Amino acid sequence: QVQLVESGGGLVQAGGSLRLSCAASGSIFSINGVGWYRQAPGKQRKLVAASSSGGSTYYADSVKGRFTISRDNAKNTVYLQMNSLKPEDTAVYYCAADPVAGTAGPFDYWGQGTQVTVSS
Description:
By secondary structure, the chain is mainly beta. Helices cover 0% and strands 52% of the residues. 32% of the residues are buried.
């Protein structure tokens, strides 16, 4: 079993930056794919970035060039660096992980979510 805890969300002005962190505990040695999803009010949860243990990455078109996913295996932590933030990036961001799936998921383990609000 893997537990995921996100942090780093908050309120930022458009054009600003935030870095989300996802700390993993438990059977972290079994993790292959990790991903960041977001869900805006009234909308479906969508995958924005993902990374596999083999080094593959995925980014949604809406965040390419602005968001970067990275993994620090020594700290059992996954990051999402978000730059040039836009009001449409406002959402609850969730970290997810899976022992088998790569960047495409599906992911078995989920964090509780962290709110990101971008003001115009």
